Amino acid sequence: MAEGPILQPDRIVLPDPEHPLWQENKEQITKTIQANIESFWNTETQQLTPYGLEQSLHEGLEAEKKFFNLVMESIDRLTLDSRSERLVLFDLDQTLVQNKYLSDYEETGIWEYECLIRPTAEIIMNHLKNIGVEMGVLSNRSISVLEENLQNPGRLGTLKQHISEKFILSSREGPDLLSPRWETLLKFNITADGNLMPEVLKDEIVDAQKCAEILLQVRAEPKGQDRMMTNARKLNVLFMAARSFKDKAVLVIDDYKFPLALDPKKHFYGGYVPPDAAYNI
């Protein structure tokens, strides 16, 4: 029987995941958490205090446990689908990676950055590869940026071996959008009284009522209009890409809430990464 959370002053410590992959790699996961924290925060002019490092390590490890558990549970659901061909689409920012900026854009006019990969990302991706699951990305980064990042060892290059070029999807621009004015392509409408119309989603890959409720819920949050439209853009890409996924069961992992609307009855599964499991160093 799994242990419950352990209470410590001002914090909760979750039990380690029981999955063998976590147990086999626990020491390396912890080392990578610390290395990424130190790389992100320590510079020539600033150093983390011992307390700051210890607190960051605690928060990083707890987030990694939650992320690992939710992704592995989502993969288990995917592998039970009746379709034998399976695909996992990962979001990047705050899901798999954290950008570390190397200079001030306002001073240089150039985005100089490297990507810190979360410690369990490659462990999970190696597992997916071993069980025959294809992988791709569904990101807010543009297609051109994604292609450059996957070629760059300091950015996403270490993930390139896992990602199929057939499944690099962008909600910003690219061949998966039929028009740069993506707003005209959305398969749902917002009526004058602010309600979404779930009936126009009935033939899509989502649970129509749940999708409408989630988007309205997001819109009520801070920065809700922008966040709702980001969820909508990603859904729109999936609506169009689904035509080429007709023989696959698909799992989407993202820190935006739209995966919660995906419908397993239509062979689409969602893994929502909540704030306490997101990758924020």
Approximate shape: globular
Order of helices and strands: EEHHEEHEHEHEHHEE
Biggest sheet details: 5 strands, parallel
Q: Which stretches are poorly predicted, pLDDT < 50 over at least 5 residues?
A: 174-185
What is the total number of structural domains? 1
Structural class: alpha/beta
**Strand portion:** 15-25%
Percent helix range: 25-40%
Distance between the termini: 32 Å
Please give the radius of gyration in angstroms: 20 Å
**Strand order in the largest sheet:** 7-6-3-8-9
State the helix count: 7
The beta-strand count equals 9
The mean pLDDT is 86
Keywords:
single chain; alpha/beta; 7 helices; 281 residues; 37% helix; two-stranded antiparallel ribbon
Structure write-up:
Residues 174-185 have low confidence and may be disordered. The strands form 3 sheets. The protein has a 5-stranded parallel sheet, sandwiched between helices. Strands 1-2 form a two-stranded antiparallel ribbon. It is globular. It has helices at 20-41, 50-79, 105-108, 121-130, 143-151, 208-219, 224-241; strands at 6-8, 11-13, 85-90, 97-101, 113-117, 134-139, 168-170, 248-254, 268-272. The two termini are 32 Å apart. With 281 residues, the chain is an alpha/beta fold.
